[in-house]
Design goal:
Length: 81
């Protein structure tokens, strides 16, 4: 399994986005940049209508690649006041 740009991933642990957004285990994102040495990835998380909701720096241990056994599940996020 090779994690590279444009690969869809699933979070395996809750994390915070770069601007403080709360991302949950199971959230799906797309790798948009692989840092040299593959020590971390920049991942974009989108709403289902295609708007960017969060950008996060994610370690390989915090994610896995999407497989053909995954299904999409939705949740609503709270907008910070």
């Amino acid at each position: 399994m090779v994690l590279e740009e444009h690969t869809q991933i699933v979070l395996t642990t809750p994390i915070f986005g770069d601007d403080g957004e709360e991302l949950q285990r199971g959230d799906v994102g797309v790798i948009i940049h692989a840092h040299s040495g593959v020590e971390a990835f920049v991942v974009e998380f989108l709403t289902l209508n295609g708007d960017t909701w969060a950008i996060a720096t994610v370690a390989p241990s915090q994610m896995r690649q999407v497989t053909n056994k995954d299904i999409i599940h939705t949740r609503e996020f709270a907008i910070a006041a």
